[in-house]
Design brief:
There is one protein chain. By secondary structure, the chain is of the alpha/beta class. The protein is built from 7 helices and 5 strands; from the N terminus they run αβαβααβαβαβα. Strands 3-2-1-4-5 form a 5-stranded parallel beta sheet, with helices on both faces. α6 links the parallel β4 and β5. α5 packs across α6 and α6 runs parallel beside α7.
């Protein structure tokens, strides 16, 4: 009985330690994402809706001439086009000519599928992916799975670090759990590059 308890405690310790180390690796990956160089241009910019700042970042990239097209994936069906345009910071002319709204996606898997259909329809092979920094690892996994061969350049919208805010820590832990689950799913179903 005592020996069984000893091994159980040891196993729990190993699980907790490996989880802490893996979360640290995830946080390091998130922190390592940097904004692309100012002279980089792509076929299109894909913005995943969610946290504040993503739409404005995508609008700014379009204004900076990084691409001639911008797709916003996961737009809430109740959101008006005018509301979305306002959050991008684009004027009507820029928005009308160059922005596509995707309203079908309700999660990250849906974002990847919605964007993949858009990319295939337009023959694009190089994209900037805009989302919150902590969301990039999982997003890139899903996007690579849905559009193999397409060059994906991450653009992190910075959020509070988990060691600065309890709410941010909870959010990062939730996202880490989702990322780990997606990694496991991809490793079981199909080989894929790490994000």
């Amino acid at each position: 009985m005592n020996q069984g308890w000893f091994w159980l405690r040891g196993l729990c310790f190993v699980i907790v330690l490996s989880t802490v180390v893996d979360f640290a690796a995830y946080a390091t990956k998130v922190a390592s994402y940097a904004e692309p160089s100012a002279d980089l241009s792509v076929d299109a910019i894909i913005v995943l809706t969610g946290d504040a700042g993503r739409l404005a970042a995508g609008g700014q990239l379009l204004q900076d001439g990084r691409a001639t097209h911008l797709m916003i994936s996961g737009v809430n069906p109740s959101a008006t086009t005018a509301d979305v345009r306002r959050h991008t910071g684009l004027d009507d002319a820029a928005f009308d000519c160059c922005v596509t709204l995707g309203r079908e996606a309700t999660d990250t898997v849906g974002n990847a599928r919605e964007a993949a259909a858009y990319v295939r329809a337009n023959g694009y092979d190089r994209l900037i992916i805009v989302t919150s920094d902590y969301h990039l690892p999982r997003s890139l996994l899903e996007f690579r799975s849905n559009m193999p061969g397409v060059d994906l350049i991450p653009y992190p919208v910075r959020t509070p670090a988990p060691w600065q805010d309890v709410g941010a820590l909870r959010l990062w832990l939730q996202e880490y759990a989702k990322y780990t689950t997606v990694q496991l799913r991809h490793s079981l179903i199909q080989p894929t590059d790490d994000a």
